[in-house]
Amino acid sequence: QVQLVESGGGLVQAGGSLRLSCAPSGRTFSSYAMGWFRQAPGKEREFVAAASSNGLTTYYADSVKGRFTITRDNAKNAVYLQMNRLKPEDTAVYYCAAKITAYSRGLYYTKESYDYWGQGTQVTVSS
Questions:
Q1: pLDDT tens-digit profile of 59-72?
Q2: Would you give the distance in Å from CA 44 to the centre of its chain?
Q3: Which of 22, 91, 120, 121 is deepest in the core (most CB within 10 A)?
Q4: pLDDT for 3-26, tens place per residue?
Q5: Cα separation of 51 and 109, whole Å?
């Protein structure tokens, strides 16, 4: 069983930045493709960003492209989401997700693709 623990959420003004971190447990982090999703009140959970297990490929939702960056450090067993130029519409609970995969360059952007989820961290952007 993999446990994912997110951190780094908080309250920030529009135009500001936050960096979310996710630290999966287990020794096979390099076998996991990673993703970030978010869920605003009354809305479905939506895809934000994904990174392949080797970290060489990434993919973003159009709404965050150019503002958010997903990176991973396999030596530290961690994945990050750097969020810049935040907007009030970015307000949501952000979730880290992991997918076990043998395909080192695979990217996954649907909720159903992922095997494990964190508990979420709140990001609130004030106008």
A1: 999 999 999 999 99
A2: 16
A3: 22
A4: 999 999 999 999 999 999 998 887
A5: 10
